[in-house]
């Protein structure tokens, strides 16, 4: 915010007034203030406060020197006060507005209570502050990075330290009692929700699978209460090394079988080199006709005898 006034404490003078709604995107209109005559805040005082546009503009212009735009109205947000709003023409403050709070008591004069530059519904403001410890996202941790859990981390609860009794410690070890801390109920629930969302029964691949991981030979069981819902896949062609829900499934299940007989009929092989002789009816008729013609001609020659006759020497 520009500051041109001499000997002014800019931080103190731009503080947000206690009764003004400063949330971005919210309506600045306040609940109507009671005009009960007993309170002393009557219509006459409200009119005087609402008509103090020139007083409010002069105060804002004195403070800001420039960047004060048109008057955007006034609203009563507390008894004996009225907030006048002016558009901000400052570069980089699009959608912001100047707010000047005027105060008036019975028998007194208008006084300037607060001056602030506030964001409007369409203004550009900084994103919501996120504490440093909450900015880490899954996958951000790299080699050499340290991420200690918080002292009040709800995912962890105190465990049981080793007692020195070999027999007792041997029994307590598998269930996590030999560690200073182990997963709490909230920690297990959060882990189960994450795992089920990625490889659970509601995923697309699981809905299309015929067999589930609970009956798969590639499933490595998990101990503890989480073992009733999850296991680790050991199939290198599927979710190898990943936690899967027992109702998850895929096409690489150990019991998947593919039919060896094809349902499609196989056509008989055809030998292109073989020649099939086919005699057409027309050919049979022609052959028979030629045979009859040849026989008739032979009969005629036999009846005529030699050309010189029988008496010719």
Summary tags:
alpha+beta; 24% helix; four-stranded antiparallel β-sheet; 7 helices; disordered N terminus; elongated; 313 residues
Work out the oligomeric state of the chains in this entry: single chain
Largest sheet: 4 strands, antiparallel
Strand order of the largest sheet: 1-2-3-4
Gyration radius, in Å: 50 Å
The helix/strand series, from N terminus to C terminus, equals HHHEEEEEHEHHEEEH
How many DSSP H or I helices? 7
> What portion of residues belong to β-strands?
15-25%
Low-confidence stretches: 1-36
Report, as a whole number of angstroms, the end-to-end distance: 157 Å
Number of strands: 9
Briefly note the structural class of the backbone. Answer: alpha+beta
Helix share of residues? 10-25%
So what's the overall shape?
Answer: elongated
Give the mean pLDDT.
78
Describe the model:
Helix content is 24%, strand content 16%. It is α+β, with helices and mostly antiparallel strands and 313 residues long. Among the domains are: 10-119, no CATH class; 154-183, no CATH class; 185-245, no CATH class. Strands 1-2-3-4 form a four-stranded antiparallel sheet. Strands 7-8-9 form a three-stranded antiparallel sheet. Mean pLDDT is 78; it is low at 1-36.
């Amino acid at each position: 915010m520009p500051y041109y006034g001499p000997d002014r404490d800019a931080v103190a003078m731009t503080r947000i007034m206690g009764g003004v709604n400063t949330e971005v995107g919210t309506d600045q209109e306040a609940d109507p203030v009671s005009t009960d005559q007993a309170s002393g805040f009557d219509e006459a005082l409200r009119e005087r406060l609402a008509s103090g546009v020139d007083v409010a503009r002069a105060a804002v212009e004195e403070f800001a020197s420039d960047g004060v735009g048109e008057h955007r109205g006034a609203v009563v947000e507390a008894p004996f006060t009225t907030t006048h709003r002016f558009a901000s023409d400052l570069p980089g403050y699009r959608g912001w507005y100047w707010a000047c709070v005027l105060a008036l008591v019975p028998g007194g004069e208008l006084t300037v209570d607060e001056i602030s530059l506030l964001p409007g519904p369409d203004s550009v403001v900084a994103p919501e502050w996120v504490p440093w410890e909450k900015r880490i996202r899954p996958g951000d941790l790299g080699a050499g990075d340290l991420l200690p859990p918080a002292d009040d981390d709800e995912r962890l609860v105190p465990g049981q330290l080793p007692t020195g009794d070999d027999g007792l410690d041997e029994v307590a070890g598998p269930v996590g009692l030999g560690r200073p801390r182990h997963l709490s109920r909230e920690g297990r629930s959060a882990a189960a929700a994450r795992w089920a969302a990625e490889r659970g029964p509601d995923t697309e691949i699981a809905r299309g699978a015929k067999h589930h991981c609970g009956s798969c030979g590639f499933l490595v069981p998990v101990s503890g209460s989480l073992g009733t819902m999850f296991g680790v896949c050991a199939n290198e062609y599927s979710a190898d090394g990943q936690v899967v829900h027992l109702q998850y499934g895929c096409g690489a299940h150990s019991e998947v079988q593919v039919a060896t007989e094809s349902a499609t009929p196989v056509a008989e092989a055809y030998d292109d080199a073989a020649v099939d002789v086919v005699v057409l009816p027309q050919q049979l008729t022609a052959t028979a006709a030629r045979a009859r013609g040849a026989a008739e001609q032979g009969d005629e020659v036999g009846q005529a005898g030699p050309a010189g006759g029988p008496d010719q020497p």
